[in-house]
């Protein structure tokens, strides 16, 4: 497998896919970005352009580098246009059967040594790989939101993932300026597994009315050095993403009480209080931009 990945396909141009496309393009890769929703690509390109413009305005990036990054992202409408990719990473909907169908389709398009990576936060990379003809080329490449600022990424090795695929992803992670953490495939991998404790305990304390969410966030920011407290993070990610992740991890650990989700989160999800994306989560974002703070 190629250890110097330069041609990258990204499937799914939502919050994560557009960020992955941006960091890869900024590191000099040529990126093809695909989405099944017609307006998603245009929105993704606009969002990358805005983010780069902000970096230029703040003096963190030259206009020439911003232009070069944007020019390396090609929005494409069909998967078959990814036929020359050395790596394809998916950031589509968090449903195993949909991701499996995508990888099967991609295997018929991409070269035999192209790595297929998944940005899943909670699904089994092993099960995704098992549906492929060549499971050795399948690995997890799990970023955090927002991708351009959270400079850590998990590289997940499933039992049948080739070491060369892991090494190539670690090398690319370094090139894009992310710290790569190699993990084996287990529910929630490392970061979401460890982070569960803060989110779940925070939700329990709120549900029991021990303390308000602002207080809990403030404690973790001030005393524990967190950049964001659990409720700020839940609002940024959105309960539509976080609640299924909590439920999936709990299920994969056979209902272990340590991972039991708190019903308050599902109730708020059902009420549509998703977070920044609905302008109302644990905090109110009325009149504020929906983008994450820089
Ligand atoms: P999103 O909903 O913002 O974007 C998903 C995009 O994929 C949408 O534009 C949708 O049109 C497109 N899509 C859906 N099915 C498709 C298909 N079959 N083919 C092509 N495009 C398709 O979702 P987001 O938040 O970017 O998440 C994407 C993935 O990344 C999920 O697996 C999620 O669990 C994972 N993830 C999300 C994080 C987050 O904080 N949002 C953090 C880490 C991982």
UniProtKB/TrEMBL annotation:
First-tier enzyme category under EC: oxidoreductase
Q: What EC identifiers does the entry list?
A: 1.1.1.35
The protein's UniProt keywords, in alphabetical order, are:
Oxidoreductase
Task: Tell me the first and last residues of the signal peptide.
Answer: none
Q: Where is the 3-hydroxyacyl-CoA dehydrogenase C-terminal domain?
A: 188-285
Instruction: Tell me the ranges covered by the 3-hydroxyacyl-CoA dehydrogenase NAD binding domain, including all copies.
Output: 7-185
GO MF assignments: (3S)-3-hydroxyacyl-CoA dehydrogenase (NAD+) activity
Q: What is this protein called?
A: 3-hydroxyacyl-CoA dehydrogenase
Q: Which residues of the full protein are shown?
A: 1 to 294 of 508
